[in-house]
Structure formats: C-alpha cells, structure tokens
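can u do me a favor
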C-alpha cells in the first residue's frame, strides 16, 4: 500500500526539485572542466528553511525521505526572530525535530529584526539574510521554502492592492535568489493538503500566533479577505489567483527581456537616454527601461514604486518643462536637450 495521497503529493513535488538541483549541479561541474561532479566534492547539499509550522515541517519530512534516494545531502535551518517570549526554546525544539527526521546539518540562526518597511518586511529581510549566510557558509546548492498555493494567492492579492503593475501580480517564483538558490516546491499544492500530510505522518507542528494576528496585513487577508472572496466568487479563487501569478510572470519575463534589448538602443553617446527613441517604445517596455536605468544609477529597487516611474515617464510623454524629479536613493532625473539625464542628487 502506497503513502497517503497528501504525502505522495509533497514527496513528488520535492523529488522534482531535487532532480532539477542535481541536473544543475552536474552542469556546473561540467562547466568547471570536469566530466561529472568530483567524488571529493560529494553530493550537493540542500537545506530546508523550517519554522516548525505545517508547511515547512511537511517540506522537511519530504526532503528527508527523498534526498537519500537521490544521493543528495539534506539539512535544515530554523530562524529564531526573537519576537516572542520563549522563541529560543521553540527554535531548539524545531531543530531537535529536524534532527530526528535525519536531516544533517541542522542549524539555528538567531536574528535581530529591525523596523525598516514595517514588521512583516523587516522579519522577512532578517530571515533571508540568515538563510543566505547559512547557505554560503555550508555551500548549499539550494534552500527549499514551504510556500503553498494559498500563500501565492495571498501574494497576488497584496500585489494587486499595491497597484505596482504586472510584476507585482506574478507572486513568488518557483526559483529565485542568487543562482536560483531558493526553491518553492509547494507552489502548486494547497495548504490543506500540506497540513494533511503532517497529520497522517504524526508530525508535530507549531502554529505561529502571528499568522492569526489581525495586526498583520497578510493575516487579515488570510482569515478575512480570502474567505470573503471565496464566499462571493466560489471555492476556485485560490487556484485562479495562483494561475494568474504564473501567467503574469510569463508576460512580465517577456516584457523584461524586450526592455533589456531596448535599453541599449536608447542610450546616447554621453550615457543619457534619448527621449525620442523612448517615446516610440510601447509604454510597458519604456517604463521598464526607465526603471532599470534609475536602479542602475543607485535608486533602491525596494523603494521605487510605480508612481515614481510614472513621474519619470511624463518627462517623455508629457514634457512641459518640468523640473528635475527626485527619486529614492538621492537620484535625480531631468530632461536636457532631448535626453534624460539620471544622476546623483
């Protein structure tokens, strides 16, 4: 008798990601001048980021089951954000559970959460900083994250609320980070299936009270917004939003590629941007060229919003002698002699 369907689903998702990691690992070895990964190097190490919640515990269990069959080393990192009393003890408990699953190495990273961008963004930045550091130190080929289809739907709705364009509707990528470090095997699996997989395997899970705290935007969306949408539109909302994310990502990737090609053709000899050449580009491509240019000049991408790019775009499409536009990162954009000049303010 085979495993429960929920368990089979999470294992299959992880197996596919591990096969991809192995393929990439072998390709890099060939690129380095060897016919195959050197035995001295050993098999690739894949880490799972685990909070102890149902999503990441299910992911850890699937990794522990599948990795030995594919000759992949499997380890884990749990991050202690220090935001709740006893968080250090809870992190130690999670680490012990991960070790009991057979994962090795298992590390606990303690981080200090700042305030930049709000509590959710600050915690996320601290967490990814710790995961990056652990992956670099341990030489991990990949870090698995337990985001589900429900998380993807929430991310799409949050992007829609920000009004930041099609890229914000793309949600989370299945592969992201430097050299494709981060992998999200569960983006096509719903949260209920993942939780069921934990239950049938008798995996202890910890439900973070922050996930039910209405002070957090994502929590309100999860417990109030999405249920209201499902009540009004039907039970297929989550799946439809996740599908929208993938379609939007495909479109955004194509437009980004077009913009990358167009960027070289609009540069003037002195490094400015030719307004006449920008003007004839489709708006979606032109704005991507502008965004790319101001980020290259030093404007931080995380602080650059659609309204900023719209102001810059008006220097091309609605020129009436406007003054220089100030952007985050002390970047100024002004129009001079038919060119856009982007400089430090």
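np, heres the sequence
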């Amino acid at each position: 008798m085979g495993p429960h369907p929920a368990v089979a689903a999470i294992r299959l998702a992880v197996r596919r990601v591990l096969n991809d990691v192995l393929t990439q690992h072998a390709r890099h070895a060939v690129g380095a001048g060897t016919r195959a990964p050197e035995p001295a190097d050993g098999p690739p190490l894949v880490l799972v980021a685990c909070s102890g919640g149902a999503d990441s515990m299910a992911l850890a269990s699937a990794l522990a089951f599948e990795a030995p069959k594919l000759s992949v080393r499997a380890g884990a990192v749990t991050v202690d954000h220090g935001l709740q009393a006893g968080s250090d003890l809870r992190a130690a408990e999670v680490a012990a559970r991960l070790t009991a699953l057979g994962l090795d190495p298992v590390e606990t990273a303690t981080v200090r959460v700042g305030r930049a961008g709000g509590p959710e963004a600050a915690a996320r930045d601290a967490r990814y900083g710790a995961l990056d550091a652990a992956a670099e130190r341990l030489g991990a080929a990949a870090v698995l994250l337990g985001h589900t289809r429900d998380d993807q739907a929430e991310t799409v709705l949050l992007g829609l609320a920000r009004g930041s364009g099609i890229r914000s509707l793309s949600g989370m990528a299945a592969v992201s980070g430097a050299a494709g470090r981060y992998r999200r095997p569960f983006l096509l699996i719903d949260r209920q299936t993942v939780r069921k997989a934990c239950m049938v395997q008798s995996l202890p899970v910890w439900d973070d009270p922050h996930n039910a705290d209405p002070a957090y935007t994502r929590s309100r969306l999860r417990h109030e917004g999405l249920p209201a949408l499902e009540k009004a539109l039907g039970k297929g909302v989550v799946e439809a939003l996740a599908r929208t994310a993938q379609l939007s990502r495909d479109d955004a990737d194509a437009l980004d590629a077009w913009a990358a090609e167009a960027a070289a053709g609009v540069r003037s000899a002195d490094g400015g941007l030719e307004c006449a050449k920008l003007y004839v580009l489709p708006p979606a491509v032109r704005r991507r060229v502008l965004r790319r240019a101001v980020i290259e000049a030093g404007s931080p991408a995380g602080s650059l919003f659609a309204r900023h790019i719209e102001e810059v775009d008006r220097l091309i499409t609605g020129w009436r002698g406007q003054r220089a536009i100030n952007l985050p990162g002390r970047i100024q954009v002004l129009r001079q002699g038919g060119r856009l000049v982007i400089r430090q303010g």
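The chain has two domains: 5-237, 266-344. hope that helps!!
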